[in-house]
Amino acid sequence: QVQLAESGGRLVEAGDSLTLSCTASERTFISTAMGWFRQAPGKEREFVGVIGRSGANQRFSDSVTGRFTISRDNANNTIYLQMNRVKPEDTAVYYCADGAIGVLPTDSNLFRYWGQGTQVTVSS
Q1: What is the separation of C-alpha 84 from the centre of its chain, rounded to a whole number of angstroms?
Q2: Which DSSP string do the residues of 7-62 spell out, in sequence order?
Q3: Which are the contacts of 42, defined by CB distance < 8 A and separation ≥ 6?
């Protein structure tokens, strides 16, 4: 069983930058793509971005493309979500996901393991 722990969420102002981290408990981390999702109050969980096994390929939702990037440190079982030029609409609980089925899946149903989430709040 893979356990994931997100960190880095906090209150920031619009236009700021923020980095979220997600560390996995097992070496199986390196065997699949990993993703970031978010859920705002009253809304469904939505795809943010996904990074492939090697880190060379990524895919992002339209709402964050050009502002967010993902990187991974396979030696330390960790992925990062770099959030730049954040907006109030980025406010949400951010979840990392592991155990992906597929190369760069965007569907949350294609990820088997989930963290508990970290809160990001962007003030205007």
Answers
A1: 14
A2: E---EEETT--EEEEEEESSGGGGGS-EEEEEE-TTS--EEEEEE-SSSS-EEE-T
A3: none
pLDDT for 59-78, tens place per residue? 999 999 999 999 999 888 89
Residue 47 has pLDDT above 70, yes or no: yes
DSSP state of 67: T
DSSP assignment letter at 65: T
Beta bridge partner(s), residue 46: 38
Instruction: Tokens for 54, please give them.
Output: 């090697």
Contact 121, 54 (CB under 8 A): no
CA atoms within 13 A of residue 66's CA, in its CB half-sphere? 3
